[in-house]
């Protein structure tokens, strides 16, 4: 009776030399990055007590301040909804132009993707700062910023989904003489409608968070009050702003996750 022998592994595989080398390189790169960026980890340890002091000052929120931030809080949510909706309206046709599997020339979908790439490279805060100089301080600037951000994000998610659809029904309709509008409406949209709605809700979640930060550059919403309370060292009021933002985002996330599960 023959017994099978366990094949011998090489020294490199036996002692995981490749993995150790990769980890060592990552550690060296991490330490080198800390050095060239001037990051001092000891500052975190030496200032950890200050973090506790700050939390202590925020532990007694001034709830009377909530009446002052209610309208900006509502405005923040409105900005997110409007910005996401406007961006989605423009993102849908852009996604169809950028999808490679639809009947477009290289120039059409190549140009579309190039434009979308440029839009996505613009950080929201930088874009908001530029738009504040154009449109002035207020929710209009924030809404436009979120609409542009939503346009870039949703269009990319949309055209990636479009490229995964089954083109069999579309080709059959095209062979029978259907127009491009009929093909999109009857053969393509039913396959991706649920995912489109899911991406819309996800972007709305992101925009609710982003709209809070945009107030720092004057783009409306709750961020302006957050900045004011921190600059004035009114941490009891800052705690109210943070808790209101947290509660709003939490509610939006719960509703969005519920709706996305229903759409799947």
Automatic annotation (TrEMBL):
Entry superkingdom: Bacteria
Any Pfam family matching the protein: BPD_transp_1
CDD domains, sorted: TM_PBP2
Key words of the record: Cell membrane, Membrane, Transmembrane, Transmembrane helix, Transport
Recorded GO MF terms: ABC-type phosphonate transporter activity
Residues that span the membrane, as ranges: 15-34, 79-102, 183-204, 239-259
Domain (ABC transmembrane type-1): residue spans on this chain: 73-256
Localisation per UniProt entry: Cell membrane
Chief location category: membrane
Membrane topology field: Multi-pass membrane protein
Gene Ontology terms: cellular component: plasma membrane
InterPro entries listed in its UniProt record: MetI-like, MetI-like_sf, PhnE/PtxC
Family the entry assigns: Belongs to the binding-protein-dependent transport system permease family.
UniProt protein name: Phosphonate ABC transporter permease protein phnE2
Species of origin: Fructilactobacillus fructivorans
């Amino acid at each position: 009776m023959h017994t099978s022998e366990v094949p011998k592994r090489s020294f490199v595989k036996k002692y995981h030399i490749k993995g150790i080398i990769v980890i060592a390189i990552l550690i060296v790169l991490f330490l080198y990055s800390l050095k060239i960026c001037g990051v001092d980890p000891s500052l975190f340890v030496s200032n950890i007590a200050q973090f506790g002091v700050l939390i202590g000052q925020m532990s007694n929120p001034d709830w009377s301040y909530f009446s002052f931030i209610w309208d900006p809080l509502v405005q923040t949510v409105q900005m997110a909804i409007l910005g996401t909706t406007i961006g989605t309206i423009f993102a849908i046709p852009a996604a169809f132009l950028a999808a490679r599997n639809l009947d477009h020339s290289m120039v059409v979908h190549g140009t579309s993707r190039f434009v979308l790439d440029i839009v996505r490279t613009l950080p929201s805060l930088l874009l908001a700062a530029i738009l504040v100089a154009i449109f002035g301080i207020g929710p209009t600037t924030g809404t436009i910023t979120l609409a542009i951000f939503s346009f870039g994000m949703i269009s990319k998610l949309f055209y990636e989904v479009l490229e995964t659809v089954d083109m069999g029904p579309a080709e059959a309709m095209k062979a029978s003489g259907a127009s491009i509008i009929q093909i999109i409406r009857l053969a393509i949209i039913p396959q991706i409608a649920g995912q489109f709605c899911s991406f819309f809700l996800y972007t709305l979640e992101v925009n609710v968070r982003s709209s809070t930060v945009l107030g720092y550059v004057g783009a409306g919403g709750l961020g302006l009050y957050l900045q004011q309370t921190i600059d004035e060292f009114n941490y009891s009021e800052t705690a109210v702003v943070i808790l209101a933002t947290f509660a709003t985002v939490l509610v939006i996330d719960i509703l969005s996750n519920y709706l996305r599960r229903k759409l799947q």
